[in-house]
Amino acid sequence: MKKDEVLNIDVLKFTNPKECPEYSNDYDYTNGHCTFRFFCKGDDCSSVDKKGYVQFNSNGQTENLNTNICITGNDSNGPFCFNNQPACKTNADCFTNNCLNSTCVINKDAPTIECLDEYYYRSLTFSYVGKMRCGLGQYEPCKKNDDCASKSCGDGIHGDICVNARWDRTNDRKNDIITKLLILISIIIAIIGSCIFHKKATKDKKKEMENINKV
Prior knowledge:
Blueprint: H1 3-7, E1 26-28, E2 33-35, E3 37-41, E4 44-47, E5 53-58, E6 61-66, E7 69-70, E8 99-100, E9 103-105, E10 113-122, E11 127-136, H2 172-214
Parallel strand pairs: 7-9
Antiparallel strand pairs: 1-2, 3-4, 3-10, 5-6, 8-9, 10-11
Keywords: Membrane, Transmembrane, Transmembrane helix
C-alpha cells in the first residue's frame, strides 16, 4: 500500500470489530475502533501482522521482516526487550536491517518510519477525530512528541525515545463538557455577584446622598 493510501484510511469508519479490514492489526475495545499499524520503506508501506511481521517485495521476492524492535542497551546486558521478541539470525531478518545478539534493534543510519491510527477528542467541535499519522517508529530517538508516529516521545525510564501507547479517550468529551459548564457557572455567578454588589453600592450611595441633603 502506498503511503498516501495509508494516510487516507478513514479510521472512524471501522467501529465494529467484525468489520476490521485485513490490513487492520487489532481492535481498540476501549475507544471502539479498528487499529492500524504500518511500516514504510519510502513510499511503500506494509501492515504489521499480530506477530509483528511485515511483507515487502524485493526483486520479485517477498521479504518477511521482523518489526519487533528492542532498545539498545548501554551496558553489558545488551538490548532490552519489553516482551519476548522473535529472534533474528541475520540483519536481513529485521525490518531495521540490524540484528544484535539475536534481537532486532534500531538502525541509527536508517530510522524506522511507522504510520499509526491517531484517535483524539476535539474540544472545539465536541467530537472525536480519527486519522492516520506517520513518523518515527517505536524506540527511535526523538526530541519532541511530534517526531513520533505515536505523538509520544519519552517513556520516563529509557530516555527520549518514541513509545507507542494507547490512551483511554472515552471520558474526554464528558470531562470537557463538565469543565466548560463549571466555567460557565462560575462566570454567571461572578456576573450576578457583580450586579448585586453594584446595585448595593448604588443604593448605599443614594442613601448617603439623602442623609446629606437632610442635614
